[in-house]
Automatic annotation (TrEMBL):
<dbReference type="Pfam" id="PF03372">
    <property type="entry name" value="Exo_endo_phos"/>
</dbReference>
<protein>
    <recommendedName>
        <fullName>Endonuclease/exonuclease/phosphatase domain-containing protein</fullName>
    </recommendedName>
</protein>
<dbReference type="InterPro" id="IPR036691">
    <property type="entry name" value="Endo/exonu/phosph_ase_sf"/>
</dbReference>
<dbReference type="GO" id="GO:0003824">
    <property type="term" value="F:catalytic activity"/>
</dbReference>
<feature type="domain" description="Endonuclease/exonuclease/phosphatase">
    <location>
        <begin position="4"/>
        <end position="225"/>
    </location>
</feature>
<dbReference type="InterPro" id="IPR005135">
    <property type="entry name" value="Endo/exonuclease/phosphatase"/>
</dbReference>
Length: 337
């Protein structure tokens, strides 16, 4: 199973939704947990369905803050246990062995004065000690001072409260691959802050059940939080889909498209239906080549963004990060067209 958890920082604009769709097409998760949707339930349901997730639970935002959505593909077996404005708790049944395990999407209160209530909520959810349990999301807190760079030092009492909460629930951090931080603020080196606020934690039963899982911090071009992609098994494969010929509107944005159509038409003989058939086959080959080139370009941009994000921030570095994110967003816009 692939599970994507992301504080998207609002889905009120169509461009943001389109970029989310582009991300989901790229990683193809079977379950998504979205945080800070900033949408009412009905509108979030429409966004979720437009992303291809018919089934799900949508928790309304409080004005322009909050909002959660946990959604799953049709082939996932899910039992909903409880939900609130801070969590969505479900049980998954794996197809292969019929093994059941709990997953709680969690959003800890961003306000310091509300942390105790959030920690009490997590402790109250610890009511099935023998079942494998994963909690994933935005905890808005650090476990260690080393998980923060820039800005004011984190209060030791806050971090200790978080550590004690996880200990009481028999949960431990499951680690990650990728850049070390999940949240960033500030475009200049003088005010840049980086923190690891998003994570996955699990109990020993879950860690015993999934021995070859991995959690990746994905590079991103919008939201100040990075997406977390959990893969429960290294053998998980993206399903291949049937490809049907369609003329893509985005092809018209490529300078070589017109010339390719002209060359294919001129090189064909016979009646019009036969020529159109040959052109469609030729365009498919052209599209495969162009798509491969664009994929290489996007991967290069993502790799550069990863390198920049891992380096020590300075003004030149942060400026190039913005330019690289802009280039990635432009590619996402073309893809959406």
């Amino acid at each position: 199973m692939k599970l994507l958890s992301w504080n998207v920082r609002g889905l009120g604009q169509s461009r943001t939704v389109n970029r989310l769709k582009n991300m989901l097409r790229d990683v193809n998760p079977s379950v998504i947990f979205l945080i800070e949707t900033k949408l009412q339930s009905k509108r979030m349901e429409g966004v979720r369905k437009s992303c291809g997730f018919i089934n799900g639970i949508d928790v309304a935002s409080n004005g322009r803050s909050g909002g959660l959505s946990l959604a799953w593909k049709n082939n996932s077996k899910v039992q909903v246990r409880s939900y609130s404005n801070r969590h969505i708790d479900v049980i998954f049944e794996e197809d292969l062995d019929g093994v059941s395990w709990r997953c709680t999407g969690f959003y800890e209160a961003p306000e310091v004065e509300n942390r105790e209530a959030s920690w009490a909520l997590l402790r109250s959810l610890d009511d099935m000690p023998d079942m494998p349990w994963l909690v994933i999301g935005d905890f808005n807190e650090l476990l260690l001072a080393s998980e923060k760079q820039g800005g004011r030092l984190r209060s030791e009492s806050q971090m200790n409260g978080f550590r004690m909460d996880l200990t009481d629930c028999n949960l431990e951090d499951i680690g990650y691959n990728g850049i070390w931080y999940t949240w960033e603020w500030g475009r200049l080196s003088s005010n840049n802050i980086r923190e690891r606020l998003d994570r996955g934690v699990a109990n020993p039963a879950w860690l015993t059940l999934f021995t070859d899982y991995h959690l990746d911090h994905l590079v991103h071009s919008f939201s100040n939080h990075c997406p977390l992609l959990l893969t429960t098994s290294s053998s998980d494969q993206t399903r291949k889909q049937m490809h049907h010929f369609r003329f893509e509107a985005a092809w018209l944005l490529d300078e070589s498209c017109e010339g390719e159509v002209r060359n294919l038409w001129n090189s064909c003989t016979g009646n019009i239906p036969d020529r159109l058939t040959r052109i469609s086959l030729g365009l498919e080959q052209w599209f495969i080549r162009i798509k491969k080139e664009k994929k290489i370009h996007v991967k290069a941009l993502q790799q550069r963004l990863k390198e920049l994000s891992e380096s020590q921030p300075n003004d030149d570095n942060l400026e190039e990060i913005l330019e690289t994110k802009l280039a990635l967003n432009m590619e996402a816009d073309r893809e959406e067209i």
